[in-house]
Write a structure and sequence with these properties.
single chain; 92 residues; 3-stranded mixed β-sheet; globular
Amino acid sequence: MVSIVGHTDKPGSLQLNQVLSENRADTIKNYMIDHGYPAADIREVKGMAREGGNDVAANGAAIDMGPLENNPLRRRVVVTELGPDQLRQCNQ
């Protein structure tokens, strides 16, 4: 099971960025399904407009994403494999 989350950087309105981040996540979801990934195993698809902070690597280390403004590293989609604990949280 996976979670797919689209992200944006800061320029633009919050509403526009929310739609953009959701569209990014949906595009990856559709790509995965079109290439054989089971749709039933995609647990969550959402957008996160203007999220600050840093990403976390698989080993738990923080990844510096740089500035919020005009930053291509923040315009991304993150696909995360969900373990048992995360699946329980999705079901609540």
